[in-house]
Specification:
This protein is of the alpha/beta class. The chain has two domains: 237 residues, DD-peptidase/beta-lactamase superfamily (Beta-lactamase); 211 residues, no CATH class. Helix content is 27%, strand content 21%. The strands form six sheets. A five-stranded antiparallel β-sheet has the order 2-1-21-20-19, sandwiched between helices. Strands 15-6-4-3-16 form a five-stranded mixed β-sheet, covered by helices on one side. Strand 7 and strand 8 form a beta hairpin. Helix 2 packs antiparallel against helix 11 and helix 3 crosses helix 7.
Length: 486
């Protein structure tokens, strides 16, 4: 068949687009198909996209590889937070179950964690403060053998399968523990020194710092911390200008229970309590009984609370769920997953994933459409299809907790992890979605208000993104085009 002049003009362009990005599945208007293909072509060559958008009746608006499984990165948090809102009791009430406690066992002060993510030792702490527990111990004893950090409420699974080892030393991959203090992060403040001299490093002192950084006139602030897993020595390198503002670095902690005991010891010493031995940590090793697939009925025994001197009550879990989704807080998401694991199990990761599986089944999502190895999205083992995420989002919108869940999502151009995206577009303030970023992965799933005023539900994931360029620009352009056409 002979091509018309118009076809001859656009045929080369369409050929290029087809080689760079898959065209949407049949069913979408041709103009929308072309607009999405053009947007995807902006991404680095080799990027693999999965997209599904449906209208309020569940009818497909546009689809690209909607049933292929992708690494979801922090879109994983959608499953974790939905399950938490649906299954954890009293998420809107003060969190009395998760708060830390302190007890005296002989000559030891035992600090126990129960899964709360927000215990603080900051000097300006007002609520949920470690200082309150230190006050209780100091009022009863002036001499201790040791402070013991006890995180046995959950089995010892400080990192999830499939998380890159190089993330362990960062705040994004810090250890997961039932006893969590200060987000399990050590904070270093780097202040410039004289030109050519080393800057000053200040911290609480948990880590030893080898300071190889240099104060250099005209240099940018480009500081880097290196720490091998399990070590408590940091290697600081890089540059900072003499007139630069102090820089803040946050470092992951491998043994949160030990850190909490160490910090408690500092607070007790400041109150005049003498401590003879170094801080200790008490863990519960992971066992076969922590996996519901290998656990017989009735083998999980409830923990018997020990007498305590003081107990802290944290803010409602609903507030923490908002933090998890708005800023994509990994540690807090992992703790929610383990709190889910206490519903019918012993608080293991496998127990939590079993609760997520129950939610996904209720949402009508096939079990073959997803697999999880963690609750935050740091694991490269996680897989999910865009259709599975859309199914969960549509199910959530129909549930009593759905409105509260959506309110935790970042808003385009307004707040959270998409505060700087969609500004100046028709989707500013009209897209409510969870981001996901990991090696070679970008994701965005949620709800958007189209030009017609209709609410569309969508999931868009990019995998195999080459280099450090990212595919978010192409993704945003595609979603803006979809909103304009609907």
């Amino acid at each position: 068949m002979a091509l018309s002049p118009l076809h001859r003009t656009f045929a080369p362009l369409l050929a290029v687009l087809l080689t760079l990005a898959p065209l949407p599945a049949a069913g979408a208007p041709p103009a929308l198909e072309q607009a999405v293909a053009q947007a995807f072509a902006q991404a680095p060559h080799g990027t693999r996209f999965g997209l599904l958008v449906v209208d309020e009746d569940g009818q497909e608006v546009i689809a690209v590889n909607p049933d292929q499984r992708f690494i979801p990165a922090s879109n994983t948090k959608l499953l974790t937070t939905a399950a938490a809102l649906a299954m954890l009791p009293d998420v809107g009430a003060p969190d009395r179950a998760g708060g830390a406690t302190v007890a005296l066992e002989g000559q030891d002060a035992v600090l126990r964690g129960h899964g709360d993510a927000r215990l603080s030792s900051a000097p300006d702490c007002v609520t949920n403060c470690l200082a309150a527990l230190a006050d209780a111990v100091a009022a009863r004893s002036r001499h201790l053998r040791a402070v013991v950090g006890d995180d046995t409420r959950f089995p010892d699974e400080r990192w999830s399968p499939g998380m890159s080892w190089n993330n362990i030393s960062t705040r994004y991959g810090t250890g997961i523990s039932a006893l969590t203090l200060d987000d399990n992060e050590a904070v270093l403040t780097i202040t410039p020194g004289a030109p050519a001299a080393a800057p000053t490093v200040s911290s609480l002192g948990y880590y030893t710092v080898t300071n190889l950084a240099v104060t250099r006139a005209g240099a940018p602030t480009a500081l880097d911390i290196m720490r091998m897993p399990g070590e408590r020595t940091l290697r600081l390198t890089g540059t900072i200008a003499p007139d630069a503002a102090p820089a803040t670095l946050r470092i992951g902690i491998d043994d949160p229970a030990h850190y909490a005991a160490w910090r408690m010891g500092q607070l007790l010493a400041a109150r005049g309590v003498r401590i003879s031995a170094p801080p200790e940590a008490r863990h519960r090793p992971l066992s076969a009984s922590d996996d519901p697939a290998h656990r017989g009925a009735g083998t999980v025994q409830p923990l018997v609370p020990a007498p305590v001197l003081a107990t802290l009550t944290a803010a409602p879990l609903a507030e923490d769920i908002r933090i998890v989704n708005k800023v994509s807080q990994n540690l807090h998401a992992e703790l929610l997953m383990r709190r889910l694991g206490l519903i019918e199990g012993a608080g293991s990761l496998a127990d939590g994933i079993a609760m997520v599986a129950r939610l996904m089944a209720a949402a009508g999502v096939p079990r073959t459409a997803w697999d999880l190895a963690d609750g935050s999205g740091m694991s490269s083992y996680n897989r999910i299809a865009p259709r599975a995420l859309v199914g969960l989002l549509r199910y959530g919108a129909s549930q009593r907790w759905g409105a509260a869940w959506r309110e935790t999502f970042p808003i385009g151009g307004v707040d959270g992890t998409i505060a700087r995206r969609f500004r100046g577009t028709a989707l500013e303030g009209k897209i409510f979605a969870k981001t996901g970023t990991l090696n070679q992965t970008n994701a965005l799933s949620g709800y958007l208000i189209a030009a017609s005023g209709r609410t569309l539900t969508f999931s868009l994931i990019a995998n195999d993104v080459p280099g450090d360029v990212g595919a978010t620009g192409a993704m945003d352009a595609a979603l803006v085009a979809i909103a304009a056409a609907n």
